[in-house]
Design brief:
heterodimer, A: mainly alpha, 13 helices, B: Rossmann fold, Alpha-Beta Plaits, 2 domains, 13 strands, 28% strand
């Protein structure tokens, strides 16, 4: 495998993804999500937060989008990554060159993932800026890189699910639907399992909940940020209902690595074996 | 050296089967792949490039398996697909730069070759215009341009002239001929246009319903597939003695006057053009033009397809 060829495809993939209007729309949405709530809270002059919590409000802008917005962005970027190359017939030209399929799929995966990480980073920067402008200097910022890092790592799970489904079905809309279905099914099943567990206290329901793909994705950034935040910051979690399903960082990490790896390995195996289909739509 | 070798190569799509195909293309040849839509031309090309896996049989490109040794096998191969699908957000220069990076060209070489191929295909003034704003013909030119990067030792072109204006078609014909002659580039092109194949190719492969009906020299193909060949002869005058001499040439079946020229029907196994020219000169008659009528390959093609069915 040659790194320069992987880098060429990764850079192409970033540009390709960004050239699509839906990804551009997502970036605009990121800007809105990470800025507007702070200015609304400030202008509404609500007293749900005490002044000693003002310094930790950056955490909300990082963790709240983790529940829906970041996985949704991951799905949107990854679902079309491979599928659109087949739909537009561009895979044929790119793969008729002296580039191995491993180099190609790695470049595609890395390029889209890099774009997703840029969205996460943009969200973090805008969140911190907005929180500082509206509520003053922010505290416990040593938690920020770890929390954003955990968020970046978590985002790989649904990115990989969508990437895999895009390669398997080779239709961007269908792969987006399939990956979204996996995400929503997992999220909804998690809610039911938690309700049933609380009602029955049967540990089986809790165990199943631990293994749902949405559980480590939602839990890891929360668990990581909790390590660094003092009590006023942690009170914000309770106030806004932010909690972790998992109770262990290593276990969450392990699940994230397992789910992401399985999806990538399936996508890679299929890509290495299957024909490069001609333009399909 | 054999650049492309297929032995009993078969692709089974379930409802449709292409092959078994056996053929070998030597270096420096210009080979035309002829066949109706869906006959299997693109599948042969795709198997050759390692884009499709043969169900059975052997495919070797530059002596290597294009699936297992993809990078080495495709190192000196340029390919322009039937539908030149190129990302519309890129400019020709950006697209060619991406392809050049795939080919592993260094920065200096990339720049040099990109300028050169843009010039070759007549797109230098559109180098920085988004592909989405280019006409179909220009995108086709760009597709050929990317295939010329490298430069390639083997050029595989699937319907390369679609959408290109007549002047462009002539230009590209001369480009492919020059590459074949000067660089010993092997050109394999699939086309529906008989005149294109006839004027460019030294060999032809006729594919029908997934089967290779004929692979060999064009002249031989025509001789095998047509009952007779029609020669159009234009002379300064048409004395009866000369027409009678032409009728007596061995292999001539008939001689008729048509408008202001002569149509000579001859057996396909003999070439009587030299004899006709000689007789005209001996009779003191000016020979203005002589040549086979243009649709011979087409007729041969249709006959062969009919036989194949």
């Amino acid at each position: 495998m040659r790194l320069d060829r992987i880098a060429a495809i990764a850079s192409y993939e970033m540009r390709r993804a960004f050239a699509r209007k839906k990804v551009l729309a997502l970036v605009i949405l990121t800007i809105l999500i990470s800025t507007v709530p702070y200015y609304l809270l400030k202008s509404a002059n609500v007293s749900i937060f005490t002044p000693d919590q003002y310094g930790y409000l950056w955490v909300l802008g990082i963790l709240i989008p983790n529940g829906f917005f970041i996985p949704f962005t991951a799905l949107l970027i990854a679902a079309g990554s491979m599928a659109e190359e087949y739909e537009q017939g561009t895979a044929e030209v790119l793969l008729s060159k002296p580039i191995s399929r491993d180099e190609f799929i790695s470049g595609k995966f890395i390029g889209g993932l890099a774009l997703l990480q840029l969205v996460i980073l943009l969200n973090a920067i805008l969140t911190l800026s907005s929180a500082t402008i509206t509520f003053g200097d922010q505290s416990a910022l040593e938690a920020l890189p770890w929390t954003v890092g955990a968020q970046a790592l978590s985002s790989v799970v649904f990115y990989s699910v969508a990437f895999m489904s895009g390669e398997l079905v080779r239709r961007s809309s269908l792969s987006y639907i399939i990956a979204s279905a996996v995400y929503f099914s997992s999220a909804i099943a998690g809610i039911y399992l938690r309700v049933i567990y609380q009602a029955t206290l049967n540990p089986w329901y809790q165990t199943v909940d631990y293994y749902l793909p949405t559980s480590p994705v939602g839990s890891l950034p929360v668990l990581v940020s909790q390590q660094y935040l003092p009590p006023p910051g942690l009170l914000l979690f309770r106030l806004l209902g932010i909690s972790a399903v998992e109770n262990s960082i290593p276990f969450s990490l392990l699940l994230i690595i397992i789910y992401s790896s399985i999806c990538f390995i399936i996508a890679r195996s299929y890509f290495l074996y299957a024909d490069i289909s001609k333009k399909v739509s | 050296m054999t650049v492309l070798f297929l032995e009993q190569a078969t692709k089974d799509y379930g409802l449709k089967k292409i092959g078994p195909i056996s053929m070998s293309v030597p270096s420096g040849e210009i080979v035309g792949l002829l066949g109706p839509n869906g006959s299997g031309k693109s599948t042969i090309i795709r198997m050759s490039l390692g884009l499709a896996r043969p169900t059975s049989g052997t495919v070797r490109l530059m002596g290597l398996d294009p699936l297992k040794d993809h990078v080495a096998a495709l190192k000196s191969v340029g390919y322009s697909p039937e539908l030149p699908n190129i990302q519309t957000f890129m400019t020709p220069r950006e697209f060619l730069s991406l392809i050049a990076k795939e080919l592993g060209l260094d920065k200096e070489e990339r720049k040099k070759q990109i300028e050169s191929v843009l010039e070759e295909v007549g797109l230098p003034s559109y180098a920085d215009v988004k592909v989405g704003k280019l006409s179909k013909g220009m995108v086709q030119r760009l597709s050929i341009a990317q295939a010329l990067l490298g430069p390639p030792l083997v050029l595989i072109l699937d319907e390369p002239m679609i959408g290109i204006d007549p002047a462009g078609v002539l230009h590209f014909r001369s480009v492919f001929q020059r590459l074949s002659k000067e660089n010993k580039t092997t050109v394999i092109l699939s086309s529906h246009v008989m005149s294109e194949v006839e004027s460019l190719c030294s060999k032809v492969a006729l594919i029908h319903s997934g089967r290779l009906l004929y692979y060999g020299k064009i002249e031989e193909f025509i001789r095998n597939a047509v009952k007779s060949r029609m020669i159009r002869v234009e002379l300064s005058s048409y004395p009866e003695t000369l027409l009678s001499s032409i009728r007596n040439i061995k292999g001539v079946l008939s001689v008729t006057m048509k408008d202001s020229h002569l149509v000579v029907e001859a057996e396909p196994s003999v070439d009587v053009r030299a004899e006709i020219s000689k007789l005209a000169v001996e009779a003191g008659v000016g020979l203005l033009s002589i040549g086979y009528t243009r649709d011979e390959l087409g007729e041969a093609y249709r006959n062969m397809i009919r036989r194949g069915e």
